Amino acid sequence: QQQVKQSPQSLIVQKGGISIINCAYENTAFDYFPWYQQFPGKGPALLIAIRPDVSEKKEGRFTISFNKSAKQFSLHIMDSQPGDSATYFCAATNTGNQFYFGTGTSLTVIP
Amino acid sequence: GAVVSQHPSWVICKSGTSVKIECRSLDFQATTMFWYRQFPKQSLMLMATSNEGSKATYEQGVEKDKFLINHASLTLSTLTVTSAHPEDSSFYICSARGIGGYEQYFGPGTRLTVT
To answer: What integer best gives the mean pLDDT of chain B?
Structure first.
């Protein structure tokens, strides 16, 4: 059973556009929702994370929107750049011991 | 801050031999370390969780006698793939979590190829 569902599987965006990746979860006990960025052949890097007591968190061009009632959260990448081309994973946890990862979104930003 | 290293970054070994992968937290103490396996174009698959000084907890379906994990200190965990076979070829990634936090910081990964 997939604890965290991520969409789309792949995404192509023009340079300067907005990239949006969505995740949904079922377990209302989850209280920490990170996003990771992974380049080919590299380990994932923590990009930004949010807790359910806020609806939005912004760090530079990256924003997490969180909808507790809908049990959904999304990553928005503003002014997308070719260097943002990577695979993005959402995740959720409620203890820090078990992270449930989404299936990943392959983002391609076209110059 | 929060840097995790892995060594080696890639390794090729013959079938039947054992391979050890090291995971180190360079600038923080890691009470918990995680080992993942990742197949091409797929998500991360948790293999085991280890706490410093304790036996690792393995996920269902992961052979503990094949994938030996040791977390001997707050900055070092090792994964030993014993009697490796071609089907063990994969990308292995460790992550570390510091004291009192939820964040996991990932290492750069180790590409294992078994011939």
So the answer is: 93
